[in-house]
Amino acid sequence: MMTSYPKFTAMLTDLYELTMAQVYYREGMFKPATFSLFIREYPPNRGYFISAGLENALAFLESARFMPDDIQYLDSTGLFSHDFLNYLAGFRFTGDVVAVPEGELFFKDEPVLEVTAPIIEAQLVETALINIIHLQVTLATKVSRCVHAARGRSIVDFSLRRTHGVDAGMAVARAGYIAGMSATSNVLAGKIYGIPVAGTMAHSFITSFESEINAFRAFADIFGDRTVLLIDTYDTLAGAEKAVTVAREMKAQDRRLRGVRLDSGDMTELSRQVRDLFRREGVPDIQIFASGGYDEFKIDRSIREGAEIDAFGVGTKMGVSADSPYADIAYKLVQFDSRPVMKLSSGKRTLVAPKQVFREEQDGRLAKDTISLREESLAGRPLLKTVMQDGKAVDAPEPLNVIRERFRSAFEKLPEEVRAITDPEPYSVGISERLTALQRKVRHSVIAKELGES
Q1: What three-state secondary structure class fits 62?
Q2: Could you tell me if 148 and 133 are in contact, meaning their C-beta atoms sit under 8 angstroms apart?
Q3: EC number(s) per UniProt (predicted)?
């Protein structure tokens, strides 16, 4: 099952988008403009990004409207003329979009999305597009690192209660599933996106019963083979011994205890002790789950130290991308009325013109990307696909499992040194000769015109 964002009002924008749009309107500037959405630099310990959020972005573009009460509010600010407000009352996005498909990898400076539309339309949708794409790219990339660190063990999303709002909670479940997460505790995400849901019990459940083992038995009586017992409420090893008792009782009823969960203490050492206990007691197949402060760094360290953990419940640090909660994402004008344009600000120069990215592979591994002009044809596979024409999505939304498989296939081809958890090596991204030449030409023209230098 798939869904999209609600029918957002076009009011989901920054004020300066509207003030610029009013000037465009007054000056009769309705020619097509191309804006490029990209990330300038990698956050710490990142060497790649995952395209995510495109479905939601396209849904926003299709549904963006100014409602009558929006127009009334804008009128009350005293900033806007009545003729411009009348224009906004009939606003529809009518442009085209090319984008890197969701689940595909992309790298810094590469456009993940480009919008071509009348400049007023392309300007007004900037804020929402950055917001939608930034959040899901950041979260998908974070989750992929946790999955990679787990070395084949399951990662379950426990982050909903501490994400930065409901939208973020839904986004981490969706983006995380694309990036290889096994399940989520978020029931709404399970319903809407068709993601497997998972969960155990809280310490309050245990303490509400007169004894720990009675709580275990009551839960197992209802949930049978799906039962996972939280064993650290009072003492982890004592809880594990009671779990063995329940496991034997269940076996006598031709049922099986699925697992136990650790949530406190030195979980690496405790997991080894619990596993030894289970082996001694003849129940070695009980799975051990762990939760509590995990991210890719703690997961990696736990496994290297020999933790006997089969799956990780990852919450806060993943759900807010705690170590790198943002990326330097930008949406910049690169062409207006067939004229390539650029920004020369120090450290923030832009690549001119509508673009394409070609990806080359060697021996089954990603080898090199080349950013080119849109009309070029180079060696490798073009990444940017036409996803919207005349304000309408070209295709129906892709099933999440298709996007998930696209990511899995791409990530398998990414060199290990690029996907490293710490200090990844940079992936090779070049610029085509034609784009380089045009970049140089436009730069010289801008310098001559705006700075009076030859």
Answers
A1: helix
A2: no
A3: 6.3.4.21
The answer on pLDDT for 2 being more than 80 is no
DSSP state of 397: P
pLDDT tens readout for residues 122-155: 999 999 999 999 999 999 999 999 999 999 999 9
Neighbours of 164 (CB within 10 A): 13
Across the chain, what does the average pLDDT equal? Answer: 96
Half-sphere exposure of 224 (CA within 13 A, CB side): 4
> 157 near 170, Cβ under 8 Å?
no
Q: What is the pLDDT of residues 203-215, one digit of tens each?
A: 999 999 999 999 9
CATH numbers and ranges of domains, the chain = 15-139+324-451 (3.20.140.10), 200-291 (3.20.20.70)
Q: How far is CA 171 from CA 7, 56, 343, in A?
A: 17, 10, 32
CB atoms within 10 A of CB 405: 13
Whether the model clears a pTM of 0.90, i.e. scores above it, the answer is yes
* Burial per residue of 81-105, b for 16 or more beta-carbon CB atoms within 10 angstroms, e otherwise: eeebbebbeebebebbbbbbbbbbb
Structure tokens given for 134: 């930034």
